[in-house]
Design a protein that fits this description.
Elements lengths: L9 H7 L2 H45 L2 H7 L7 H19 L9 H23 L2 H33 L4 H60 L4
Helix pairs in contact: 1-7, 2-6, 2-7, 4-5, 4-7, 5-7, 6-7
């Protein structure tokens, strides 16, 4: 009747583990904390980005005048579409000044230059979106193995203790092995949310990058049409 009451709990097993296992558990705990912090931060940020992206797209088609869009874009801090627009608008202003002898119209070579600028701007904005997300992939890939290392080390320590005591019955072996297996459980506890968070975040980032590609095409089309009609646009 008293047997279950004397079984050590989780904290007792952690406290009774060896220094190496405790170190492994600390590392896994840090991995887990950082992973959850990244997931929470990215989910909040992505929600804001998606909202602003939709609003800026509507603004772009509503205004059409680049000067007005540029002034209004200051109210959009999160969406990467603003970065794409500003990169093109800045270069377009320089092109218009350089092409004043030609009536201020955009030439074929200028369009190709704008395409290269947009490609670079998309790469920069994508890198911002993906910042710190790689840590989730690292946690998902390495945490189970780190936990397994702690388990193996703990079991080795248990068997050395068995050899020293000269006893190998279940009552002697079970406590040490259960302490070691906590490391494996902690590894999985850190890895599973990280993998799920990574997949979810990457999927949403993929949708945003698709929006950036669509916006880049629309932006270039408007540049070609608007500037050819009105050099001062």
């Amino acid at each position: 009747m008293n047997g279950p009451l004397t079984q050590p709990g989780l904290w007792e097993m952690v406290a009774g583990a060896g220094m190496m296992v405790k170190f492994v558990l600390l590392v896994l705990l840090l991995f887990s904390v950082f992973s959850w912090a990244i997931i929470a931060y990215k989910l909040i940020l992505l929600k804001r980005i998606e909202k602003e992206t939709h609003a800026f797209y509507e603004l772009f088609w509503d205004k059409r005048q680049f000067a007005q869009i540029s002034a209004a874009s200051k109210g959009f801090k999160a969406t990467p579409l603003v970065g794409l627009f500003n990169a093109v608008y800045t270069e377009l202003t320089n092109i218009m000044k350089a092409n004043e002898p030609l009536g201020g119209r955009v030439q074929k070579d200028d369009i190709e230059r704008l395409q290269r600028i947009l490609k670079k701007a998309r790469a920069i904005e994508t890198a911002k979106l993906e910042y710190a997300v790689g840590f989730l992939a690292t946690t998902g890939n390495t945490a189970p193995f780190i936990g397994l290392f702690g388990t193996v080390w703990g079991i080795m320590t248990s068997f050395r203790s068995i050899g020293a005591k000269g006893a190998a019955n279940l009552a002697v072996v079970a406590p040490g092995i259960s302490e070691a297996l906590v490391a494996t459980a902690m590894g999985l506890l850190a890895a599973i949310p990280a993998v799920m968070g990574y997949n979810h975040i990457i999927t949403r980032i993929g949708r945003i990058t698709a929006e950036m590609s669509n916006f880049s095409s629309d932006l270039l089309n408007v540049v070609e049409k608007q500037v050819s009609k009105k050099p001062g646009a």
